[in-house]
Amino acid sequence: MTNILLYTADDDMKQDLSAQIAEFNEHVDFTENSPDIIIVDENAEKRQKLRELYALVPIIFLSENGTDSDSDRLNIEIKKPFSLMRLLKVIGTANRRLDNSEEGNLNFNGYVLRPSSKEIVDTKSGCTVRLTEKEVDIIKYLYKMADCFVSKNDLQKNVWQYNVDVTTHTIETHIYRVRQKVETKTGRRLIVTDNGRYKLSMDE
């Protein structure tokens, strides 16, 4: 499921565009929290604020004065008026780049996460560590949130989808295991902990 944050001052446009996107792509959900993709209509100031909040999330900017450009993985412009098929294509490309395609490899702090092969590589030593699917999901979510610390509740909601069988201890155990697997081999931090919250180490 791809979470899309759609920001526009035009309520009719928001309703119509959301409905059209959902009609052609059943694997999307429109949300105000933890987006995988952000779509901003015209408001450059709002785009900048969202970029500061979500440093690593692709933002699609719709603008009459814009230029069609999707060469930048994180900052994509679509000139209005546009066709729905054009927007759907851009959404699909942005989603694949952050999901499990070859292009979807995530690079940070000397690590490369390869979701499709469920492994993380330390580019400094060449060490490769195999991961479980859930460990990949945890790292992907922490990557999406960039420099923000996330709580166990955030992880339960966005990685485990509020599974009632998932306890705080379950989350702590998963974090501990993935840190042990990676940090023991690389000698470098993967995840930083602060008062029971977590974020990726991005600056070591």
Overall description:
- With 204 residues, this protein is of the alpha/beta class.
- The protein has two domains: 2-98, Rossmann fold; 105-200, Winged helix-like DNA-binding domain superfamily/Winged helix DNA-binding domain (Arc Repressor Mutant, subunit A, Orthogonal Bundle), CATH 1.10.10.10.
- Helices cover 38% and strands 23% of the residues.
- The chain has six helices and eleven strands.
- The protein has helices at 11-24, 44-53, 84-98, 133-144, 152-158, 168-186; strands spanning 2-7, 28-30, 37-41, 59-63, 75-79, 106-108, 111-114, 119-122, 128-130, 191-194, 197-200.
- Strands 2-1-3-4-5 form a five-stranded parallel sheet, sandwiched between helices. The protein has a four-stranded antiparallel sheet with strand order 6-7-8-9, with helices on one face. The chain has a two-stranded antiparallel sheet with strand order 10-11.
Distance between the termini: 32 Å
- Domains (count): 2
Order of helices and strands: EHEEHEEHEEEEHHHEE
- Indicate the proportion of strand residues: 15-25%
Task: Name the strands of the widest sheet in spatial order.
Answer: 2-1-3-4-5
CATH topology of the largest domain: Rossmann fold
The top level CATH class name of the largest domain: Alpha Beta
Percent range of helical residues: 25-40%
Summarize model confidence as the mean pLDDT. 86
Describe the global form.
globular
Q: Please give the number of β-strands.
A: 11
